[in-house]
Amino acid sequence: MSCKSRRLWRGAGLAAILAVTVWAAWPGFQRTPQPGFVVPSAGASVQDSRPRLASAIVNAAEPPRVHAASVAALPDGRLFAAWFGGEREGSTDVNVYGAFYRPESGSWSDQAVVASPEQTSSDLGHLVRKMGNPVAFMVPSGELWVVYVSVTLGGWATSHLNLIRSADLGRSWMPATRLVTSPFFNLSTLAKGAPVAFDNGDIGLPVYHEMAGKFGELLVLSATGEVRRKVRLDHGSRSLQPVILVKDARHAVALQRFAGETKPPRAWRSETRDGGRSWSPVEATDLANPNSALAALALDDGRLIAVANDTEDERLRLSLLASEDDGRHWRVIHRFEDREEFLGNNVSPETLRPLLAADVATLGPGPQPEAVARNAEQNLCRGETCSWQYDYPYLIRGADGDFHLVYTWNRSFIRHLRFNQAWLEARL
Prior knowledge:
Oligomer: single chain
Largest sheet: 5 strands, antiparallel
């Protein structure tokens, strides 16, 4: 073959490769569309015009300190909550606990350990010293999953994510598996927010990174738990713990916890118009955020609601807020907890006790009031100074249309608030 012929063949080959590449990459030529979000169903809302708000405590009085609850609506109408607890956050005695809620009784079952450092170490074949942040959710296959954080050495910045699965709605659990979320020693991926679903069966889990930077990400898992991809929602060192609010198959809004140095501290917002493949640069909302987790939901009419510490310092207040412009601006519609008058003015145990007793009387079914007050005082007071704390909300809507909020109450208990559409509409 002559040199001219070889050049012609080489040119034809390069042209063919280029044509195939363009065909594969150009959206209009793809045979199957990119997966889109599944818009959450509001459920069959019970036609009850009477506003209802009910309260209960989820966990037992032992262990004495708990945090980071999540809650999942089960197909049979029950709820499943998961949280971590021990002597203190980050201690080696922390386990992940779970309990079930029956709507007809309005109370929670006895708690049970669903994951421990010892069992997780055995399942993975790797040492696990401490654990945190469990996120419980149902997947399309009908399984109940819990993704939780674990650490072998160091602090939360060196964490891993683990997955346990239950095929019988939490009666038994399969061995834990580790999610490989990073090629760099698989370090520093943590979870907090509620998952979103894709129309191809994939699950989008909001996660975040804390090593040499702080930013939110979206971790996409297959229906069987394999990591498909991870998409950054931000860069740098300013955001954490994203919450994803699906508006339609392509459009979703992300809200993130403030974790930066700029003032005033405000929750961050971004959005996607391509089903989560790419996200706009974050922008500050007008929602104050004292470097604390928030929760949010999209309503059927397009409005958003959020539960957050809407303060610039400390976590003395927990509010319900609403937005009519996709999360740019927010207005308070209810205060679930409010001790803002004590900002910068810690109280003595003697002043705390009668106020605490009045609060305990409003918490609903749970451990004995004396045990609740004892744990709270132990966790809120350091010597002669005490301070309140309400944080880490997690919000879902059940199959019956009711809303369920869980959060950490004074470092000591997981409080559950259930309210209906009529109660919410009276405030919107």
